[in-house]
Amino acid sequence: MAWPLIRKRSNRRSVSWMVDCGMVDGKRVRYFFGSRSEAETKAEQLRIEKKNVGLAAFALTDSERAQAAECIELLRPFGKSLRDAVDYYLPHLKSINRSITFERLGQEVVEAKRTDGLSVRYLGDLDQKFKAFNQSFGSRLVASIEALEIDDWLRGLRTHSGARVSAVSRNNLRRVLGVAFSYAVVRQYCDRNPVTSTQKAKEAEKPVGILSPDQLKSLLSVAPPQLVPFIAIGAFAGLRRAELERLDWAEVNLNSGFVEVKASKAKSARRRLVAIRDNLRSWLYPLVESVGLVTPMNYRSLLDTARKKASIPEWPHNALRHSFASYCLAAEKNAAALALDMGHTTPQLIFAHYREVVQESAATRYWNITPDDKSDPAGDVNSD
Q1: pTM, whole model, 2 decimals?
Q2: On the CB side of 358, how many CA atoms lie within 13 Å of its CA?
Q3: Helix 102-115 to helix 167-186 angle, to the nearest 10 degrees?
Q4: Measured between alpha carbons, how far is residue 49 from residues 39, 45, 69 in Å?
Q5: pLDDT tens digit string along 263-292?
């Protein structure tokens, strides 16, 4: 029997002709005409359409057909089809259905990083920055948050005094948000990472702050014995402050000539061994213990008192670590080895921050600072 069926319908008042397509996608599709010729013409059109586009097209209402035609025209200037539009938008719709709020995402990321063995300090930093973002976006579905919104939020960040946050702070927040959205993409909570489309703030390069040989020698001479290992290991081995706070005497081995920074105590979560240079050995030898924390609990107040006694008016950021790197590079000229000592994966940061910060003569004086050093080295760190 030919499809579609053409049937005559009559009553006392009129005669009509019906084109019956049967059930299509759960709908009964029928058309009515006043004459058989009109019905036959429609039936032929339907047969041609069925051959060209398939049966499903007959289930469309007139409104849906008109909408499809309109969308086709809107896409035409871009060389795209309705199928292209659906293929582009469908993943977003699917991610919306799978998505979670950013507040929940932040909790998942912190827990995942904890499982991966990241340090407590790193986890705390993540949690703090996620909470700042939660104030504006915590209840939003991750898949609904757009790059422009994140960019505006980053640009609008202010300190408590109302000033714009520094470029470094803004970029740190951007980096952490990038970590969260990358995790969301992997978990299919969103189909792309919007942070990658935000603008990174331009950071002004600033020279690292270091201590002169005179300042370090004076600091060590006035520091109480319990504080000397903290200063000496920071200045002559370059451990980070947080690593020094966790360092145990069992990890300081004068016989093997290395300080061990365990993976669980390192910022990078990678174990490393830092060479104990000769002058560091001379400072540690009279004070070394078998076990126990190297750094006293009240080291901050002890250091502040010693700094004032040594006439150091201001304490540069990461002064001990930056001093170690600057004088070590000037003296040993081995960026790759220095990067390993400092826990960097490549020497690029070494060259970027510590190259030509001090002259070789100042580095010689620095590495000759020992407990029995009675000399009075003169001159600035950048001069002979």
Answers
A1: 0.56
A2: 29
A3: 90
A4: 15, 6, 15
A5: 888 777 778 999 999 999 999 999 999 999
